[in-house]
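Running log. JK asked me to keep both predictions on one page so they can be read side by side. First protein, sequence followed by its tokens:
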Amino acid sequence: MKRSLTLVLATLSVLAAACWGEPAFDPEKLAIGPGGLVGNGDTITSGDFPGGDDVLPAPRQVESLPDDTRPPDCDGACVSYCNAANLQNPVNRGLCRSLWGVGLSHQPINRDEACRRLFVDMIGRVPSADEAESTCAGSWGDTVKRLMDTPEFIFVNQRHAADKFLYSNEVVNIQAIYDMDRLMEKLYRGKVPYDQFASVVSAHPVLMRRYADAGDKVDALFKLFLGRPPFEFERADMARVYGLWHSGYYEHPLLGRMPDAYLRFRCLAEDNKEVDPVKKGECTSVVWGYHELVFIPDVRAALDPQIRELTMWNGLLSADEWAQLQTPGRVLTQEIPFWEHAVDEVLQRYLGYELSPKVPEVRAELVRWLLQYGGDIRSVHYAVLTSAAYLQSAYGTTPTSYRWAYGPLKQMDAEVWIDSMALNSGYATANCDHRIAQPETLLRNGSIASYRVLKASRWNINDKGDLDESYANLARTLGGCPENIVGGRFRVVSILTTGTQLSFVGDLCNPTMSAQVQGAPLERLLPEGVEGGRALTADLAVQIAQNQYRTLLGRTPSDEELTEARNAGTQCALDKCSAEAFARPLCFALMSSAERLFY
């Protein structure tokens, strides 16, 4: 019986691939799932959002500034002042009554700091000075638009989704993970409105297989899209329709046995041909209207020997059936808290703190903004990234404890830190792939198809089939490249992480000039045309420092920093230092600084 079921499913999978319009097997086009049914037309909006270049008002002259012990009180004069400011950016409009309108000022920012922050948040790495100067020239609105149009912006958001949905190919079918990744690309290309995205996710195999119990599925959906757990009556009601899902295993004809989500046929009469009027209440949600979800089995159904019930693989569902199953997501998108949580997530991600509870006007303005642009989530990213809340300095004198009066300061993700180190210095590293958290699971399968999937992924695998996990091992110690089986990504500063980081920087910069350590290419650490054996002078030390600050830190050094380099070069020259003997320790000093960990 088990063998015949496997053969039936293998045959049906080939038919399903044809129905989805995909080739039977392509390691670079592995996605199969409901994400392929949406976002296949034009973009929702043009992507040309206003409000990127507001002329910010000066603080209103007031008799006394707010005293920091309570939220600022915006009186009639304050309201009139903010209305007259004619601010186009919704974040700036929302902030005005708690900032400029009450006499407070924001913290001015320099272009280097702002550009570096935008690169890290949007592109996933620190820029070189040349990149920063060319990309961040002109207005901030144009800069953000340029960065939003890059493939790296899409990739960074796909990796955020992997953290949010805890991709794990040991728990979920890898084809479903690839489909969710494809759906995220469509979302950030502006082809899928956020409410439609949430509806698809609410019945996506990544979510349905990740959480086994119906109640757990409800919990996950509420936390993902409302930012809170469901009330007990909400959980009990929605669990009735989520009870249709069953966690099983799918025998892929080439990739072998994989975990996947199946549809159960509940609330039917004994002949399985019609709805049982007595049982159908167990498959009906009534809190958000009357939503009955009962499916009648047909030739696509097969007997599951484990639970002794008819089930159907999700890859055989039609577009209409997917639409019915996405009812839980659609009902949540009708709630205002759904849209509020959508904008709160973007604010939290870029600012690093919760702004909405402190200044609720910002949330209200952003919700209206998002709805105005048809649910195009890119509009919210653009608004936050070009706002005064984001484009202000985290350094310098802070005249107030009001958090929105100075800029964000956040810790870099592990991958951002490693990638920036490697790309800026030319140091060769491997990689990891957020879609395949457990590559060894595919390798254990031993099939050529599994090898081809890994070879086409971002994992590094040699011609002998050996996986290079050096990057992943380093990143996982620092909280990145999560396996997502139990927990996900984390950020921490500890003795272990600091030691790990210093060890990596030591290998990269090789300050002791050990023959056993390859290190970064010397030509990246020295000015063009300078040989490593050249005798060091104070002027050469300054040139080396100028090159490394621009290449490794992405900015021009200050006069004070150049003076320090000149003094260090003078001392080193007394010991007859070479250019390399000065450059490599300087690399270590710069790369191990806090500026490389926080932004």
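And the second, directly underneath as requested:
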Amino acid sequence: MRLFLPSLGPACRAALLLTAWLVLGLNSASASHLVGGELTYKFLDGNGPSDRPYRYEITAQIYFSKEASSYAPDGTSNIIVTFYNKPPRPVLVATLDIPRSSFAEITAPTPPGCFQQEPRVTLARYVGIVELPVVANGYMAVFSASSRSPGIVNLLAPQSETMTLTVDMTPGTMRNSSPTFTDRAVVATCLGDNSFVLNNAYDADGDRLQYQFAQPMGAVATNSLGAPYIRYVDYARGYYWNAPFGTGGINTIDAITGLARYYSPTQGTFLLAIDVQEYRRINGQEVLLGTTRRDILLVVRACAGGVNTAPAFTPASVAQTYYQVQEGQSLGFDVTAFDTPGQPLTMNVSSALLDGPGGIDATLNGQVGAVAVGLPAGRVAVAGAGTLTGAFRLRAGCGLARATPYDVVVTVTDQACNSQSVVAVFRILVTRPGLAVSLSGESVLCAGATGTYRVVGPALAVYNWTVYGGRLVGPTNGATVQVKWTAGVPSRLTLRGTTPAGCFTDSVSYAVNVRPGPVVTGPLVYCRQRNTNLPYRIEGPQLAYQWSIANGTIVSGQGTNEVQVDISEGLTATLEVAGPGTCTRELRVGPDNTCLAFFNVITPNGDRQNDWFVIENVERHPKTALTIFNRWGRQIYQSADYQNTFGGENAGPGLHYYFCQLADGTVYKGWFEIIR
């Protein structure tokens, strides 16, 4: 894969070319001796600045050789990660300088009495937060640095090769976190052995993962047009990305679990790359969200002790490797391995289900597991000699269900100089409890009608009802409910139960055909002082429509397509109409709180009742001008922005007149009386 960026502007191209020069310009004397690694991300939120609202946590796990010639045996103090929006028009959108957050040597201990040298490796972690702009197709994060560890057999010039890692990132509108590998990226095996190595990853969002070998990436370069792209590494003669051990070598990978089998006929260190692709079902279609790239260094060394028989699982232990359990239920299985020579064995069991104290209730031989920094899965180790059994137990708590299985990875290794391992992957699908009930009730009715619905089947601990296209009326948490339906949306009633253990079940739905009544046109709001002779009409053929109204009166038109109604001042009226063979249509008509209403009496006696000349809703009309005149036409009050503050000042009792003008030029005239 090459990442072409043809639309970069001159400034961006210059920045990338400078980065490439800095990366490629490191000479071998100061080489970092990069061994492998991967980039991952986690969506945080949309609370960044307006031009870069989406915040992501970026984690880089980079493996460095700790040999004496390494420039950075404990990892560099910081790394640079660049971010591009995805094609069709990729451009550089951000650059992040991430400081090293931790480092630790992860060199495997040499078994007692053995003399082969294990490769010394440091794992450095870099964690930072980036703010990214809104884009349509997502982003690609890129880390590139020089140079790879010397002596890699299958590369043409390893110390001249840059290591580039990438991860596809979904846009902020599709919240997601990338899968995270559950084990380390440096592996040591014995010459001549068929080794099984797991490249399993865990996805916190429950997306489906698929594994495949990939071609490792090299340096960032530019094409003839000056657009940056990422090239592949150059393999030594006879080696390829899909044949990393050359003629006679074996490399296979299980696309579902990531379990790989390696065999190299020669000794040395070999570079491989693994891609894990992340798929999610969206609107009934499975969509590829992105790809996370991992570079791996496999060390094939000569081991003392001659031929060693690998441990094996008992046939009964691996007869079933796929399990399904509902939330609230328990699951258990035993895994037994044996070693024919009777050597000491270590069983390592890794799973996101073994998440330590609290959280998920899962154990192996009674141990809840421990989660190492930077790994998503917990681990339990069990030791023994000759024969070894691990008892896995899970109580699937509420909220554990998801669309894809959880992996439980069991690795058994014998303790010998030429140690061998056997690996098995058990998959556990956790589902919500099924709902063994159905619903009954009216399936066809008119809009505005109320239907009764009942649960048919076993009783549930709790009933959780949801209505689309209507509303529940009366009790809402029993086995029988009533729904008042409205028209305009696909209508249905959905029930989801709660088990005695407190877990939600799957849901069951009941579709309802809600027939609309006649279409009525007319005002849905009225002004307080214009509440009479409101017209309502039904288009279409003349029928004997029957009208009724609450909080009002049918003035004229009963039995026809058009009526006029009076509504009680200040109240909300319910107007209903039905014709022969049609459904009832209901309209609710309420007062308009933007209309002005002028009170016609004030009694300015200080009792705070009718003490001021009030224009109702005037606060909704800024800059309303009011002028008041006495009965002889003399102006006694004027305001450019009236706020209901005139209390009869400079005015005697009797009739007075007002002139009110809104900011839009609308004029109101009238009178009111002052009573003293």
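Observation for JK regarding the second prediction: Residues 1-31 have pLDDT under 50 and may be disordered.
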